[in-house]
Specification:
Keywords (chain C): Cell membrane, Membrane, Transmembrane, Transmembrane helix
CATH topology of chain A: ABC transporter involved in vitamin B12 uptake, BtuC
Organism (chain C): Pseudomonas typographi
Number of strands of chain A: 0
Structural class of chain B: alpha/beta
Protein name (chain B): Sugar ABC transporter ATP-binding protein
Shape of chain B: globular
Order of helices and strands of chain A: HHHHHHHHHHHHHH
Oligomer: heterotrimer
CATH class of chain A: Mainly Alpha
CATH architecture of the largest domain in chain B: 3-Layer(aba) Sandwich
CATH class of the largest domain in chain B: Alpha Beta
Radius of gyration of chain B: 25 Å
CATH topology of the largest domain in chain B: Rossmann fold
GO molecular function, one term (chain B): ATP binding
Shape of chain A: globular
Largest sheet of chain A: none
Chains: A mainly alpha (326), B alpha/beta (483), C mainly alpha (318)
Structural class of chain A: mainly alpha
CATH superfamily of the largest domain in chain B: P-loop containing nucleotide triphosphate hydrolases
Number of strands of chain B: 20
Keywords (chain B): ATP-binding, Nucleotide-binding, Repeat, Transport
Helix content of chain B: 25-40%
Chain lengths: 326, 483, 318
């Protein structure tokens, strides 16, 4: 079969402008991170060490995991406004229950994932606006966290603390874990059939439904997976901070949305990238370090994150316009 | 057609009604292996309905559907159609725009499951693209959203021909060449012939007569939901095809004395965006100008173009939408609010909308359009389709604007309503209002003073009513040869 | 009974008021009637702030799915600080400072809409990015010592007339005015039309871009106003004072009976929802429930309301 019809892959050339725009767009998250890193290393050469990287990327993993959770929700054109309080709740569970009662704690965390899957089913089945439902959930998670841990405290189980502080050779653990998450999720979303169906459900739900896949199960599954990443994020976070409080991760809601968008994800239409999202999360984390090296007061940290977000979006709008021009 | 004609599927007296509308009536037609069957007809002739029935997306309510001698009408559906190797390439794209070409192929073909599916999907679609459109310039890893519309269409077509462990016997191509350029269209038609000669079956719908005559073995002509002619393509000519689609020379239309109103300064003078030859669409005060041609050939775009121009320039304009649900109705509002929304500027007293004036406007137009409802404060969705459409007419006519655009507003409207509306239009035009009227119904063109026939986004014919004939419009709508 | 049902479905905002009254009655039943008036008075005072931001958010949400203003909390923090600094404790500077705050609100609204329009990004992302920048501005600008509001302004923000806070009266007037704007002006009608069907609104001659622009400016101006009043009320601006208003502004809109899908709003319902939320919290307080329980109840109610609304809509369609 192949002999009579030589594989035409090599023969086809993509038109240059489209190819260039595509490359530019997919390179944007990586380039922004690289620019940031270079700037940091120039400002502060000592940052280019195991210790320096470890310090800067201390909290990168929980944020990357949260970004991954948000990305899964954004894949089906929804938005999770409860992610930050959910991660806070998980941290509180880990700091109070998980140590003394490992079984009960694990069961509670599994229950959280089930709640997320149920939310996905609810949002799809009743055609509810995800923003409002997750808004309500954010109150519930926050309330539950306060019930568990009325004032900051608790202690993460020793095994968890040990796990997140493993000294890896060459590069800090955070970098390996981030790379692992990015590659694993990339393989799942881009390489597996299931991943293709999940993304397809974001791009053209009718077409997916018509081919006989259950949109209800797709949404419940994606939400459940997002919940899983939320749990992992909370565990990692409390392992690093050793104690928890009910507001520990509230900013993660907005940070995770920003990370997905920085990573090239689009808000509608299922165009998301796992690798990009992790890069976006790292960019946001490192932006803070750069500012402190620049001796800019921490007041401007959040503003800088916003400015980076706007800058990247503006660049992307520029690339899109470039592409639209014939 | 000497071939041992193996019949894949046969309609016998098949019919389908939507409410009061008979979309299909007593259709008897067989689809054979090794044959390309052409299907032709003007708007509303029933082509699309028939193809949806064949693809299993619509269930017929009369007659029989014979597959292998068995009547499967009652349990025929998309899955069964696919099991019998029947696939369909519809005009509206069913690709996921955020996925790559190969991934879209995977979604369609259950046979591409399992380990290494990416490589297989890439190869399958690349081979098929290469077979149909050599030199296509599409990479299997291209994201569909990044492709221009023509290449998306190519992917859609090629994907229908990929078979990995699934039967493939008949493919429906509904206007497949509409967004392809001439060279690529020719490639497709050559492939259709090869596919048919290899024993496959194709149903081809196209508005380009040359394509139909050169590619099809048989051509079925449809009119008013019926198949009126099925003959070998060789027995048809351009002229005879056009004649078949029209109604047998209607007994002398009552020819009202025609007075041209084409003088003074035109209210509308706009060139369609895709017009190449500088032909403009003009409408003069008091004139009813018809936009004819097959559906989706740029008439609505022209209306939108005129609308935006005039809204931006603060010149008055109102539009009557045809697709009520998506373009016209505000579903949460009452009938009165739906009517008054375009006339709010006239209803103000001291800066605020005067409820009394609003009610008066609604009641006046209830009477003038004959909207059947106990109260204009009822929600608009409580009205029947015809009455909703009357409300949309009232919205446009209640404005003081001199120009009214109409976007095929009579879709699915009963005869009584139509007659009422035609009378109102004539009266308003006599008062000096100008109408730009896109219609898919040939009979409505007789109410127009001047007609432009559209094809491929351009106005190709420009005729006053005195010279208007059905054959002329059909000839303009259908292209003789591909460009 | 059936007439009762008809009048309820015609005035859906009654529900939130009835719920608020029931909760108020439950609370005074528990306390044996003590402090009933004081409770109501403070409920009116706090609700006024919820209602101001709720009004802006309501207009934004009414323009259709995907429209939401996430920059409200940062806007409140920034404009609170701006107002206090400009007033500098001087009664004579109250009017110019208020004017400056309103101008800042207009500028923030323009910035929000500019991002939406120029970068072609969804409103949620645009207002989110804007809020990051506003928040930094607020931190940097308002970090100096806490400035007290001028006594006159403080009195206006906290004073009462026969137990009813001045602010509640003023915001009631504002609410009534906005209800009229929504129902009886061209702008309001187009907001409702765009929320139901933006395409149909454009085809009916509406200028969709301008209406949306005006709506985002409106929301930002109200948030700015809320910021300066809140700073006056609490004796000075603080960075965290806007935090709860993001969720609260959406919650009062939803509980008040406005459709999240757009095109249908319920302006008086904002008051019912705000009173309900405040009274619920104080009732749970009186019952001795902890902060955690209070939050959980709020969340459960938001979700229950949105499910109930969708059930009603789906039932109506059938």
């Amino acid at each position: 079969m192949n002999a009579s019809n030589p594989l035409p892959l090599a023969a086809t050339q993509r038109p240059a402008p489209r190819e260039r725009a595509r490359l530019l767009r997919s390179a944007l998250p990586g380039v922004s991170l690289a620019v940031l890193l270079v700037a940091i290393f120039i400002m502060q050469p000592r940052a280019m060490s195991y210790l320096g990287l470890n310090l800067m990327l201390n909290l990168a993993v929980p944020i990357a995991l949260a970004t991954m959770a948000q990305m899964l929700i954004i894949t089906v054109n929804d938005l999770d406004l409860s992610l930050g309080s959910f991660i806070s709740f998980v941290a509180c569970v880990a700091a109070t229950v998980l140590g003394p009662h490992p079984w009960l704690g694990s069961l509670a965390l599994l229950g959280c994932i089930a709640v997320y899957a149920a939310l996905g089913a609810l949002v799809h089945g009743r055609n509810l606006p995800a923003i409002v439902v997750t808004l309500g959930m954010s109150f519930i998670w926050m309330g539950a966290a306060i019930l568990l841990l009325p004032s900051p405290g608790g202690a993460a189980p020793a095994w968890l603390q040990g796990l997140v502080r493993i000294k890896t050779p060459l590069l800090p653990l955070a970098i390996f874990v981030c790379m692992g998450i990015a590659l694993l999720m990339h393989a799942f979303l881009a390489r597996s059939t299931l991943g293709v169906i999940l993304r397809g459900a974001g791009g053209n739900p009718q077409a997916i439904g018509r081919r006989g896949w259950s949109l209800l199960r797709i949404k419940a599954g994606l939400y459940g997976l997002a919940g899983t990443f939320g749990v992992l994020s909370g565990l990692f976070l409390v392992g690093l901070t050793t104690s928890a409080d009910a507001n520990i991760a509230l900013r993660y809601t907005l940070l995770s949305i920003a990370g997905v968008i920085l990573g090239g994800g689009e808000f509608v239409g299922g165009r998301v990238s796992a690798v990009g999202a992790v890069l976006g999360a790292l960019t946001l984390v490192l932006a803070g370090s750069l500012l402190s090296f620049l001796h800019i007061s921490p007041d401007w940290q959040i503003g800088a994150q916003g400015a980076i977000l706007i800058l990247v979006l503006a660049l992307r709008a520029g690339v899109n316009r470039l592409e639209a021009r014939p | 057609m000497a071939a041992a004609t193996c019949t894949l599927l046969e309609f016998q007296g098949t019919g389908k009604t939507f409410g009061a509308v008979r979309a299909l009536e007593g259709v008897s037609l067989a689809f054979h292996a090794g044959e390309c069957l052409g299907l032709i007809g003007h708007n509303g002739a029933g082509k699309s309905t028939l193809m949806q029935v064949l693809a299993g997306t619509l269930a017929p309510d009369q007659g029989a559907m014979l597959v292998g001698g068995q009547d499967l009408r009652h349990r025929y559906n998309v899955r069964l159609a696919r099991e019998h190797g029947i696939r369909c390439v519809f005009q509206e794209l069913s690709l996921c725009p955020n996925l790559s070409v190969a991934e879209n192929t995977r979604l369609m073909c259950a046979g591409l499951a399992g380990w290494g599916w990416r490589a297989r999907a890439r190869r399958a679609i690349a081979e098929q693209l290469q077979a149909i459109f050599p030199g296509h310039g599409i990479h299997p890893d291209d994201i569909v959203a990044d492709l221009p519309i023509g290449q998306r269409q190519m992917v859609e077509i090629a994907r229908a021909f990929v078979c990995e462990g699934e039967p493939l016997q008949l493919v429906i191509l509904d206007e497949p060449t509409s967004s392809l350029d001439a060279g690529v269209a020719a490639q497709l038609l050559r492939f259709v012939r090869r596919f048919v000669e290899g024993g496959g079956s194709i149903v081809l719908i196209s508005h380009i007569l040359g394509e139909m005559l050169s590619t099809c073995d048989r051509i079925a002509v449809m009119r008013d939901g019926k198949v009126v002619q099925v003959r070998p393509a060789a027995d048809f000519t351009h002229t005879s095809l056009v004649e078949c689609m029209g109604h047998a020379a209607k007994a002398a239309e009552e020819h009202r004395t025609f007075v041209s109103r084409r003088h003074g300064t035109p209210v509308v003078d706009t060139c369609p965006a895709r017009q190449g030859d500088g032909q403009c669409v003009r409408a003069y005060p008091g004139e009813i100008v018809g936009l004819a041609g097959l559906a989706g050939h740029g008439q609505s775009q022209l209306l939108l173009q005129v609308l935006r121009q005039r809204v931006r320039g603060r010149q008055g304009v109102a539009l009557v939408a045809g697709d009520r649900q998506s373009d016209g109705v505000f579903p949460l509002w009452s009938i009165a609010q739906n009517i008054s929304v375009a006339s709010l500027a006239q209803l103000r007293r001291g800066g605020l909308i005067d409820p009394g004036a609003e009610r008066a406007l609604a009641n006046e137009w209830q009477a003038r359009m004959g909207i059947r409802t106990p109260s204009m404060d009822q929600p608009i969705v409580a009205l029947s389709g015809g009455n909703q459409q009357k409300a949309l007419f009232a919205r446009a006519l209640a404005t003081p604007h001199p120009l009214i655009l109409m976007d095929d507003p009579m879709r699915g409207v009963d005869v009584g309503t139509k007659r009422d509306v035609y009378a109102t239009l004539a009266a308003e035009a006599a008062k000096g209002r100008t109408f730009l009227w896109y219609t898919t119904e040939l009979e409505e063109l007789q109410y127009c003073d001047h007609v432009y026939v559209f094809r491929d986004g351009q106005a190709v014919l420009d005729v006053p009513r005195s010279e208007l004939t059905e054959a002329l419009i059909l000839r303009g709508s259908f292209q003789e040869h591909s460009a | 009974m059936s007439t009762l049902r008809v009048s309820f479905s015609a005035k859906p905002w009654l529900w939130s008021f009835i719920a608020a009254v029931l909760i108020w009655l439950a609370t005074i039943a528990f306390t044996g009637g003590q402090g009933a008036g004081g409770l109501l008075s403070s409920a009116l005072g706090f609700s006024a702030f919820f209602v101001i931001v709720g009004l802006g958010q309501l207009f934004v949400i009414t323009t259709g799915p995907g429209n939401i203003d996430l920059s409200i909390p940062a806007n409140i923090a920034l404009c609170g600080a701006l107002g206090m600094k400009l007033m500098a404790g001087d009664a004579g500077l109250i009017a110019p400072a208020l004017l400056a705050v309103l101008v800042a609100g207009v500028a923030i609204g323009c910035f929000n809409y500019g991002l939406i329009r120029l970068l072609r990004i969804p409103p949620i992302i645009a207002t989110l990015s804007a809020s990051f920048i506003l928040q930094s501005l607020a931190i940097a600008y308002g970090r100096s010592v806490r400035i007290q509001p001028p006594p006159l302004f403080y009195e206006f923000c906290t004073g009462r007339l026969l137990g009813v806070p001045y602010l509640a009266l003023a915001v009631s007037l504002l609410t009534a005015a906005m209800a009229v704007v929504l129902a009886r002006t061209r702008y309001g009608r187009w907001v409702l039309a765009i929320g139901q069907n933006a395409r149909a609104a454009e085809l009916a001659g509406g200028r969709v871009g301008r209406i949306r622009f005006a709506t985002y400016v409106l929301s930002a101006v109200f948030a700015a106003l809320c910021g300066v009043l809140l700073a006056g009320f609490s004796g000075g601006a603080s960075l965290a004072m806007g935090e709860e208003y993001l969720l609260a502004s959406i919650a009062v809109v939803v509980i008040g009976g406005t459709s999240v899908a757009g095109g249908f709003s319920n302006v008086p319902g904002l008051w019912g929802a705000a009173l309900f939320l405040y009274l619920l919290v104080s009732m749970l307080n009186t019952f001795g429930a902890s902060a955690g329980i209070r939050l959980i109840c709020t969340g459960v109610i938001i979700i229950a309301v949105i499910i109930a609304v969708s059930a009603r809509q789906q039932g109506g369609r059938r």
